[in-house]
């Protein structure tokens, strides 16, 4: 069993991308490999696969 967390960064165009995207990528790299386990697409949307379902809720929060 696995979990997929998806999200969209709201109002991201009001900030320069380097302010939030670098931190998001750094965090995701601690959880898996790109692009097999996480991906940022269309500029501000993302998916992250968490293979340990017990960990998925903690990561989502």
Description of the structure:
The chain is α+β, with helices and mostly antiparallel strands and 61 residues long. It is 34% helix and 26% strand. It has two helices and three strands. The longest helix is centred in the middle third of the chain and has 13 residues. It starts with a strand and ends with a helix. The mean pLDDT is 87.
Instruction: Write down the Rg.
Output: 12 Å
Spatial strand order of the main sheet: 1-3-2
**What portion of residues belong to β-strands?**
25-35%
Instruction: Give the total of beta strands.
Output: 3
Short account of what is shown:
This protein has 61 residues and is an alpha+beta fold. 34% of the residues lie in helices and 26% in strands.
Write the layout of secondary structure elements.
Layout: E1 3-8, H1 17-29, E2 38-41, E3 45-50, H2 53-60
Antiparallel strand pairs: 1-3, 2-3
Name the features:
about 60 residues; alpha+beta; three-stranded antiparallel β-sheet; 2 helices; 3 strands
């Amino acid at each position: 069993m696995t979990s997929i967390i998806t999200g969209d960064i709201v109002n991201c165009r009001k900030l320069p991308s380097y302010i939030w995207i670098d931190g998001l990528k750094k965090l995701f790299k601690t959880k898996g490999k790109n692009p097999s386990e996480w991906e940022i697409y269309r500029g501000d949307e993302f998916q992250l696969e968490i293979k340990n379902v017990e960990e998925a809720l903690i990561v989502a929060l």
